[in-house]
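quick one
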Amino acid sequence: MIDTDILIVGGGIAGASLGAALAARRRVLLIEREVHCGHHSTGRSAAFWLESYGGPAVAPLSRASHDFLQSHGWLSPRGAIHIGQSDVFDNLPTLAPIDRAALEKRIPGLRAPWRRGRDEPSCADIDVAALHGHMVGMLRQAGGSVRTSAELLTAQCNAAGWRVILSDGTEIHAALLVNAAGAWADQVALAAGVGTIGVVPKRRTMVQLRVGRTGLRDLPLVIDSRGQFYFKGEGDRTIWLSPHDEIDCLPCDAAPEEIDVATAIARFEEVVDWPVEAVERRWAGLRTFAPDRVPVYGFDKREAKFFWCAGQGGFGIQTAPAAALMAAAMILGERPALDPTPYDPARFG
Ligand SMILES: Cc1cc2nc3c(=O)[nH]c(=O)nc-3n(C[C@H](O)[C@H](O)[C@H](O)COP(=O)(O)OP(=O)(O)OC[C@H]3O[C@@H](n4cnc5c(N)ncnc54)[C@H](O)[C@@H]3O)c2cc1C
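structure w/ flavin-adenine dinucleotide:
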């Protein structure tokens, strides 16, 4: 039997960052069902920091995470350009417009219908592996433990705290249970006898393409204003491309579907005249959203020993440092630097 103050379920960026923020102050045990932490959404992201991504409720978490990411050298300048065939940038009123001539310079070979653009120069690439590795390392160095191949099966709560049973039969006693299980967040809530929130995992596809054009390594992140695609430079002749798909699915080890790869390429070919030479890699991951697409951080409204850290959608990497500090402050009974009200799980009835 293992005894701990805080049991965190999930070794992705959410669980690891929160564990890193808590381990110096409480006994923390993080459990991860897979052999390695970061196997699911965290290991499959497009790895960018984009302030406008996720909307106004997410932006404070992204902004507050920026300096931490920058100071560790995990951000590389990329820049982003939102493009459109007409002026449909209602959600980006503060970004400077770019005219067709300037668009052509920054995206050579851009097809004629793409006449409008908005500039978001602060966009950066995130070194996700370094960030996640740092968080897991910090958790351990501060005295916390990480146990992989360890799946929570059941959890029962009484006045003394939680009695948790893992798939290998291990029994854990914990004062607080943290749900950082990504796509499985509602399943963990059910296993603990806590009401679900209604999070929905949505599959997103990524493709690494080799194209008949050179000099692409520093190509900005190019995002469609209607949300049909994005792509960014990867190597001299390679790009990362997504059809911006959001396909509802059950929690799973997501894999790309041929149709989504084909859709991505078809949309890409309508944007630039670069010949597609090969699909070098393809992968998919789950972006898991709460019903209002705002992340969920806080104590469950009925079970005060259950803390939600879920629904990070498509912005869980770029928000992780600040979200973890905010959640840790709540757990430690301190005043968070950011207002946690928008993320309160109690908003779901
Ligand atoms: C294609 C794609 C592109 C993305 N691009 C970006 C981007 O550019 N920038 C950005 O900020 N974000 C991006 N995201 C979103 C980001 O990856 C996620 O928001 C983030 O990784 C979620 O982290 P997490 O820790 O909540 O989930 P996960 O990384 O999925 O971790 C949850 C973990 O919980 C474990 N678990 C579940 N149930 C149990 C159980 N019962 N017992 C033990 N362990 C359990 C799982 O095995 C899993 O490892 C992207 C996502 C995808 C899929």
